[in-house]
Amino acid sequence: MARQSDRAGGVGEAIPLRRHRSSLEGVIYPAPQRLAPEKHVEAIKVFDRLIQHFEPLQASNKDYKPMTLLRLMKEEVSSEDEFLVLFFNHIEHGELEVTEASLSKTLARLHSFQEWTSEERDALNQSLANFASYLVDNFFLPLKSLAAKTPQPTPASLSRLDLSGSAIGTPQRVSNLRKSCLTRDRHRCVVTRKFDIREAEMRYKIDGENVKDDDGKPLVEEAENTAYLEVAHIIPHSLMSHSDIEGESKLVRHSSIPIAFEPVQNQPPHTYKIDYVNSNRRFRTHALPVTRTLYVTPDRNIDPPSAQLLDLHRAIGRILHLSGAGERIDKFIRDMEDMEGGEVCSNGSTRIDDYVRYKLTAELHQMSVF
């Protein structure tokens, strides 16, 4: 999660801080567009009327709720205009570009949707569901399938700080990033504060019973409370472009539990309440919620975790949980993984199309990681 400058400083010299900027611009909507104020208000009103009408009609016996997903997306996106343009264009035309003139026609037509025939309203309902599926297939599915696939580092013995252009995209760079994250987070999980067992064992070989953590406190007392830590992307790297989000995109964790970081007001910077996305879950692997102040390096040469990406992570978790899309995607991924190395059924029941699409999507996104 931590990132150091592309140029290393001399001995004892702080490495100049360079902001790591990322955004999701272009991931689920086209290039930035701004609606005229009156058109924005009109689009919001029509969208709200559609959701208020169709959301209660969702099948109560189904866990997945596409209309709820759309409502939550509109509540959480930072660029409402882009989302609204894509939404109305998709349900009306199924294209990715739209002018305000055609949007005006779409809004005018939808104003009277409650007066349409039942067949026309059913078709509109299906269009909304199709748009929700578009978001799931093109954003949420790739995100969840990549979330647990943070690239693994080269052995520590081969690691050496070198983020020059020749190192970008290599396992060496991944190793360097991992070292930076662990240094910034003091070799502890940001959630549980457990110490990295690999680092503890290396220090023990040198210092024996006098082994200490990064703060100079004895580590032997924590001998049975360590964990194998990995560096995890807050948002998978391949789903981001680099533009306007400050801070690092990675943090140190020892599991992939679905958690959310909510900033705490009137506390030191980078203080968060950390809780399960589903705060009511019955079975827990960790005692949450907890409040943590994330570590930063004294000379600030390693970026702290991006507050914007942590908020985006929270929003995505909320959308996937409350709409039921998260469990739906998890089941789909499990089904696809079960097909790995399996045989094709002679009765044609094997989901070949789904499997090919899933693998192609994963490969395309993996190609752009680092």
Q: What tags apply to this protein structure?
A:
single chain; 370 residues; mainly alpha; 3-stranded antiparallel β-sheet; two-stranded parallel ribbon; 7 strands
Molecular structure report:
By secondary structure, the chain is mainly α. The protein has a domain of 111 residues. It contains ten helices and seven strands. A three-stranded antiparallel sheet has the order 5-6-7. Helix 2 packs across helix 5, helix 2 packs antiparallel against helix 8 and helix 3 crosses helix 4. The longest helix has 30 residues. The protein is elongated, with a radius of gyration of 24 Å. It starts with 36 loop residues before the first helix and ends with a helix. The N terminus and C terminus are likely disordered.
